[in-house]
Amino acid sequence: MKVVTELPVWAAPMAGGPSTVALVVAAARAGGLGFLAGGYKTPDVLAAQIAEAGASGVAYGVNLFAPNPIGIERADFVAYADVLRPEADRYGITLGDEPRNADDDGWDAKLQLLLAARVPVVSFTFGLPEAEAVRALQEVGSVVAQTVTTHGEAVAAADLGADLLIVQAPAAGGHSATFTPEQPLEAVELPELVSSVRQVVALPIVAAGGIASSGDTAAALKAGARTVMVGTALLRTQESGASEPHKAALIDPQFSETALTRAFTGRPARGLRNYFINQYEGSAPLGYPAIHHLTSPLRKAATAANDTTLIHLWAGTGYQAARAEPAATALKRLAPS
Fold first, then answer.
1. What InterPro entries does this protein's entry cite (predicted)?
2. Which of 220, 266, 281, 309 is most buried, taking the most CB atoms under 10 A from its CB?
3. Is residue 243 included in any domain, yes or no?
4. Closest among 80, 105, 79, 95 to 301, alpha carbons compared
5. pLDDT by residue (tens digit) across 168-221?
């Protein structure tokens, strides 16, 4: 494995704010590895974070969303906007009426940024990058990691030339990395998924999804993973950039379970079950990133108002393991004894 860390617990990239530079640096100094989340940031903001992480002197990774849009017809987009209008009206927000199907999240600019910065580890989510991009990153010394959710995706990533796999189970919080979001996610436990991937691909594996205890980590390692990656368990740490409403919701007894939903972004993601999921999941179409952009102003307004009924409270099934503590403490707590 080209990336060897003392601690077999890494910090996952969490787009939208939770993955701060401080969190990434803390993960490295604890003996693991942390990832900046490139998704939803402008190239300039990502460049500043890369510079800050690089100046710290620690190894780090950067994650990008590989372009894999889910197109949506305008009529379906408008119909969902009409369903959401009462919530938007409550906050004085005007919802768009044209889907942004072509948004690639600044892919080319961000890729060039990573090449220029010679980022130690680069990971991809949502789909496969072009083979030329993988080779270019490897030529400048980057280790390329591909997030996969099935053994079929793992084979495709290996064929592409990835250096390691991040194997994500459906228990993971936030967006599923699935290449085929239109298909239901297979219900599989992380150790079983790691084992099945291990049988068909020889690449090193980082296991992710539902890690909430040292026992979970041990089980993933026993199944064949070299290390694990955690996200939800770090949301309440001192270095986390998660919003205060999000942090509070993780320990609020009114939220008693998580659910997979496409209601917020048009792509399957796991979060705490709240009013928005219950009310709109049945009406929500597939359509990413169009639905993400549609609901984004509403979610931002709700966050500012501390209205957790309308916020995407991303969380994995092990969310109750999230504690208010230093990130290093959380990571070391999850390491096998």
1. Aldolase_TIM, NMO
2. 220
3. no
4. 95
5. 999 999 999 999 999 999 999 999 999 999 999 999 999 999 999 999 999 999
